[in-house]
Design goal:
The chain is of the alpha+beta class and 356 residues long. 42% of the residues lie in helices and 19% in strands. The protein has helices spanning 8-18, 35-53, 57-63, 78-87, 106-119, 121-140, 143-155, 283-319, 336-355, and strands at residues 66-68, 71-73, 159-163, 179-182, 188-198, 208-216, 226-232, 234-236, 242-245, 248-253, 264-277. Strand 1 and strand 2 form a beta hairpin. The longest helix has 37 residues, at 283-319.
């Protein structure tokens, strides 16, 4: 089973000695982001991630998520670890302070993403998509929509999703059919189906906010007629409390080759109430805010898994006995060509970290 030790020294070297992250503290808005503060936060996050999250990786993948009567149960330990991670402030570490985040540099959030993706990619997707949903609504939402959803998304008390793909519309977003019909109260009723929705349904938090691409009837054809909506799992009352369950249902969990601890769902919207995020027919621009952040997260997944693979390849090479090396060593790390491969892995990972 793969093991993980957060590479704190390597991360701090890149931030402090290569990128001079301390220069951020010269900006008034980032005055708190001193090297000492960032180093301390990285060390604290590393402890939680390698001690609480990493041990969930293998058993979580073996157990997977389970669907029963529309509710998805995540693997054992995920809910408790997420609550600990969220209450410690790591979900909102780089979200603006005015919405409840810590207001620290985005770079710090990506460092934590790297460690989380090394420890357990499936777990990392729950807060990862939440941050993206927050940013999408922040960029285009009305004051009312922001006030309703951002404070809970910023802290990770609620999680978020990105609802784009449909059975007939994968990369061809112009083929999206989910329709939105205006209601008298300013909301819209959404009808349609979405597939491959990461974190689409679970019971780890009190509410899930779906960031949905849909089509208002009468709008232009193709991508020019798409609009974004915030569609909560549970409706939100005027006082901010949780109301009735919305008409969005998980109909199945997608079958995948891995990351089984991440619930990737097919969702059905049957008159689900949603609220405009941005102007009608500007959905593709609005959704690209979240999509581009998700692409950065995918890069962090690659970096995190490079680090995990390198650590475990080195550990295996130190233990595996095979043949006799020129230097008399009996394990495969003593063989020059194995050392070359391991050094190539390490160099690739270190280079990727600087780029990321």
């Amino acid at each position: 089973m793969a093991t993980y030790a957060a590479p704190v020294r390597e991360i701090q070297f890149v931030l402090n000695d290569v990128l001079n992250v301390g220069s951020l503290a010269e900006m008034p808005v980032m005055a708190d982001a001193t090297p000492d503060t960032l180093n301390g936060l990285i060390e604290e996050a590393a402890k939680l991630i390698q001690n609480q999250v990493a041990p969930l990786n293998a058993p979580g993948d073996a157990e997977g998520c389970k669907l029963s009567n529309g509710d998805v149960t995540v693997p054992k330990g995920f809910k408790e670890a997420y609550k600990q991670y969220q209450e410690a402030g790591w979900v909102g570490i780089s979200n603006p302070a005015e919405w409840g985040g810590a207001g620290l540099p985005y770079t710090l959030g990506k460092v934590i993403d790297e460690m989380l993706c090394s420890a357990d990619v499936a777990f990392a997707l729950y807060p990862g998509l939440t941050v993206g949903c927050f940013e999408g609504i922040l960029a285009a939402g009305s004051d009312e929509v922001k006030q309703t959803y951002l404070p809970k998304l910023a802290t990770g008390e609620w999680t978020g999703t990105m609802c784009i793909t449909e059975p007939q519309a994968g990369t061809d977003l112009g083929a999206i059919k989910t329709k939105a019909t205006p209601n008298d109260d300013g909301s819209y009723s959404l009808d349609g189906g979405k597939i491959f929705i990461t974190s689409g349904e679970h019971t780890m938090v009190d509410n899930i906010v779906h960031f949905v691409l849909a089509r208002i009837e009468g709008g232009p054809a193709g991508v020019k007629g798409l609009t974004t909506f915030a569609v909560p799992k549970f409706l939100v009352n005027a006082d901010g409390s949780i109301g009735a369950r919305n008409k969005v249902t998980c109909t199945s969990i997608e079958h995948k080759m891995g990351i089984h601890g991440s619930c990737t769902c097919a969702l059905q919207f049957e008159g689900a109430k949603g609220w405009l995020v941005g102007a009608p027919n500007t959905g593709i621009q609005n959704m690209f805010v979240m999509m581009n952040l998700a692409r950065i997260l995918v890069g962090m997944q690659g970096l995190g898994l490079c680090e995990l693979a390198t650590q475990n390849a080195i550990a295996y090479a130190k233990d595996r006995k095979q043949g006799k090396a020129f230097n008399g060593g009996a394990t495969i790390i003593d063989h020059p060509d194995v050392r070359r491969m391991l050094l190539t892995m390490r160099a690739t990972t270190e280079g990727a970290r600087v780029l990321a």
